[in-house]
Amino acid sequence: MRRSSRLAAVLVIGVCLTVPATAGPAQADLPDAYRHWFVSDRSVTCVTPDGRDRRCATSAVEHVEVKRNPADTAALVFITYLPDPTAIGNATQLAAAAFRRGADGWRLVRTIRSAGGVPTGKVAFTGETGTYLVAVPKPGDPRCCPSGRRQVSIDLR
């Protein structure tokens, strides 16, 4: 290899090593943040076919409902999942969490232990609170079809 070719190769390699691949820190998008929470949070559990507790995989997810505030800085995420691969029918569970968007992307604020259910309509975001209605059974309602409504308020901090 000629001296000028070697010098050009060294310069190209040197430039590639010193120029950062991205202009800033990696931005965590909301789907990545809630997927990570779902598979790693100790309160979200599934079971193996022989009945042992295990972490849930994203393959257990049946439905994801995301509700964002108007400023797109806070979100409530509701994940309906099938915790038991041997279950038949409507043996689903609900996991819920609050997320915030900051300079470095979306991050988990907290897992919501008693979300009350999936919102039946819009979530109203007021200050640091998300408020929504959930379906609840009235006396005499069949388990499949609750006809009552209850208001739930979630602190987003």
Describe the structure.
By secondary structure, the chain is α+β, with helices and mostly antiparallel strands. It is 17% helix and 38% strand. The chain has two helices and nine strands, in the order H-H-E-E-E-E-E-E-E-E-E. The strands form three sheets. It has a four-stranded antiparallel β-sheet with strand order 3-4-5-6. The longest helix has 16 residues. The N terminus is likely disordered.
Oligomerization category of the chains in this entry: single chain
Give Rg in angstroms.
23 Å
Tell me the number of helical segments per DSSP (H or I, 4 or more residues long).
Answer: 2
Strands of the widest sheet, in order across it, are 3-4-5-6
Low-pLDDT runs: 1-26
Beta-strand fraction estimate: 35-45%
The N- and C-terminal alpha carbons lie at a distance of 62 Å
Helix % is 10-25%
Class by alpha and beta content: alpha+beta
General shape = flat
Strand tally is 9
* Average pLDDT figure: 80
The major beta sheet can be summarized as: 4 strands, antiparallel
Order of helices and strands: HHEEEEEEEEE
